[in-house]
Amino acid sequence: MQARTRVERISQHLVPVPAPDTPVASTPCAASDGGKAAFTEIFPILANEILRELPTTFEMPPHAIQWMQQLNEVNVQGGKMNRGLTVIHSLQLLKEGSQLSRNEEFNAHVLGWCIEWLQAFFLVADDIMDQSLTRRGAPCWYRQKNPINARTGTVGLVAINDAFLLEAVIYRILSKYFRDKPYYADLLEIFHEVSYQTELGQLLDLTQPLRGDFTAFTLDNYKKIVRYKTAFYSFYLPVALAMLMAGITSRPAFDAAKEILLPMGEYFQVQDDFLDCYGDPAVIGKVGRDVEENKCSWLVIQALHAANPAQRAQLETHYGIDDPKDVAIVKRIYNEIGLKSIFQQYEDESYKQLVDKIKRVRILPQEVFVKLLSKIYKRDL
């Protein structure tokens, strides 16, 4: 009843959504910091366990151990940790506010960090593919100085192997902590499945037509890209892991979760596209490059829909060129057609639709989805 009351309040008043760290009544995860302190305490335990086995089990020399330490510390830590924290937040709510045991809390945190390792794997690889410059306010991993690589003095393309290492760590951790759990095989399957889905989404994202050809820049294609590239691992995965921990095996329950979480992931990615263009790099931690990389972005799709013939001709000429002058022309067209207002309208409508979906859920606690939605609504805009 608590969850439905909050959903009803949110649906009536669009703006006053609970902030990401707002305590949730009657749930043990309602620490003032949203549980971040307890979550972050687990990282060094896991990272040190990975390092300790390198010289013994795998005969790694000191320089390889040092590299691995830097790889984990720089790339796995430092984000907002919303994906990882969602595991324990969801588990608390799925258990209907009952106090979790210490072991349950620890295991939920471990699974949360597995998602953070997965995120690091994707970001290290994605930054190379997109030739990105910054990540979380610092140079991307592949651009960072590292004297251990004597050939270049930077991480460079060694980062490709580093991405593989980050992914491999997930399965070392799962084996250590969950091998004896009845849902161990389900954990392995869902991590492999979501990784594959995300990589397929990345394939779609990176293999667009030649510059100036907008035939594939449709809303349907965009939704397919973001569903696979973002929604499965960012929204469905953490909730599904909590459901497995809670002993939920009903296929309709997982289907119901997808019905809400995949559209929520689409909404999140549209926000990300908007921030890529209009966000402050000091706030979002990176310099957007969707225009330069000829991405099938929500913004360019909306611009093509609203542009007059002259504006469309300019987009065909200047979109996808890695030159500040061309980027400036594209962004000027975005401003001329009022993309900020178009986005604000989209955000409000999408939010209302998500709230309506949540209100119809009966098989799972609605509060699971309310809390997750509250973390992303109007984020860093």
What are the defining features of this structure?
two-stranded antiparallel sheet, 381 residues, 16 helices, Farnesyl Diphosphate Synthase, mainly alpha, disordered N terminus
3D architecture notes:
The protein has 381 residues and is mostly helical. It has a single domain (2-13, 20-370), classed as Farnesyl Diphosphate Synthase (Orthogonal Bundle). It is 67% helix and 1% strand. It is built from 16 helices and two strands. It has helices at 2-12, 36-40, 42-57, 62-75, 82-94, 102-130, 158-178, 184-206, 219-245, 251-278, 281-284, 298-306, 309-318, 324-336, 339-359, 366-376, and strands spanning 134-135, 138-139. Strands 1-2 form a two-stranded antiparallel ribbon. A hairpin with a 2-residue loop joins strand 1 and strand 2 (138-139). Helix 5 (82-94) runs antiparallel to helix 6 and helix 8 packs antiparallel against helix 9. The relative contact order is 0.12.
Overview in brief:
The chain is 67% helix and 1% strand. With 381 residues, it is mostly helical.
Question: CATH H level: which superfamily?
Answer: Farnesyl Diphosphate Synthase
The share of residues in extended strands comes to under 5%
Shape label: globular
- Quote the CATH topology: Farnesyl Diphosphate Synthase
Lateral arrangement of strands in the main beta sheet: 1-2
Layout of SSEs?
Elements: H1 2-12, H2 36-40, H3 42-57, H4 62-75, H5 82-94, H6 102-130, E1 134-135, E2 138-139, H7 158-178, H8 184-206, H9 219-245, H10 251-278, H11 281-284, H12 298-306, H13 309-318, H14 324-336, H15 339-359, H16 366-376
Antiparallel strand pairs: 1-2
